[in-house]
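W.,

You were right to be curious about this one. When I first looked at the sequence I had no strong expectations either way, so I just let the prediction run and decided to look at it fresh. Below is the sequence, 389 residues in total, followed by the output.
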Amino acid sequence: MTDLTTAQIRTARIRTSIGFILYGLVQGLWLVQIPAVVERLDIDAKTLGLVVLMSGVGSAVAQPFAGWFVGLIGSRRATRIFQPSFFFMIPVMILAPNITFLFIASFIMGLAGGPLNVAINTQAAEVENARGTTTMPSFHGWFSVGSLVSASIVAIIIWSGYGNGSGIIFVISLTIATSIWLCAGMLPATTNPSDSPKKRGLRLPTGAVLGIALIMVFSNLVEGGTANFTSLFLKQVKGADAAMVGAGFTFYSFAMAVMRFAGGALVEKWGARKILTFGGIFIAIGIAIAILSPNIWFSAFGFLIVGLGAANSYPVLVGAASRIKGVAPSVGVASVATAGLFGFLLGPLLVGFVTDYSNLSIGLSTLGISGLAMILGANLYSWPKKSQS
């Protein structure tokens, strides 16, 4: 393996953190504008779920090759390719002139988004392993910081009179330029005998990878459903006005950020099993509060509790996948990230279809059930001694 200096590792940690901030910011720009797009194009909940699914179809096409490709050219170069491509598609989604265009744009966004998720998380895992201490949760904490400020940026754009799309285009242009710059300081591709080109080929995942992947499905089902339907739930079910509609997503993102920055110490102290178990409990409680509370603020607060529970599941599971014995980090991350993508997309689809046949409150309750399934999976999986606690 290439010898890395302390300065290289420190620089890579900073640059990768910025990359996660931009990733969360740009994705958040889309999520907080979903209600506006839904209203402008007259989309119902089921159609919205299908739009999100199209992104998953795009990722499903690209992601089986992502682990191999990232392993071949290195996570730094892969991030430099896919992050600007993903960023470019966000204003295309937000400004889509009709539903057909939106479906096509969603598919193309998935083609870039799936490999980006593998590339930047592989880089984060490489930084974590180079440092020798739990770092992955903090990277995802910075992602949540980006998501947290996205609503404020949209508000500033509208307040400044650039809500016609020019403001979004300007912000995305800055993020693309910054992304290209920061990738130069990430860790270079390493040469590891256990990760030779022959071993990086496309292979079926091992049982250990599949176990983590299954937990990831339930975990990300919660994240996908919450991110895509929180604002819509507060507006349509709780009667939130324009100023209040983004409160649930803001609370959720704030909780995710705070909990992820504390995640490193918590994982070291409690281990993966307890982190995921308590996370599932918080998710179920938070969803119940959001649905049952008659007060808009209490409902929004419920999503804060969901954020506390969901915060560290993804980084814990991705980190574990990067350290499975006999599996290259890029392959482990790609396999689990693919499962995470499936869950993230299944969440909106599940909520949308259940809502179509009942109501949005019942649709959202499926996320609480997923939190309980996450608890079951975490306690059935055979964690390495250091991780289980």
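Here's what jumped out at me. The CA atoms of residues 292 and 299 lie 8 Å apart. And, maybe more interesting for your project: The chain has 16 helices and no strands.

Coffee later to discuss?

I.
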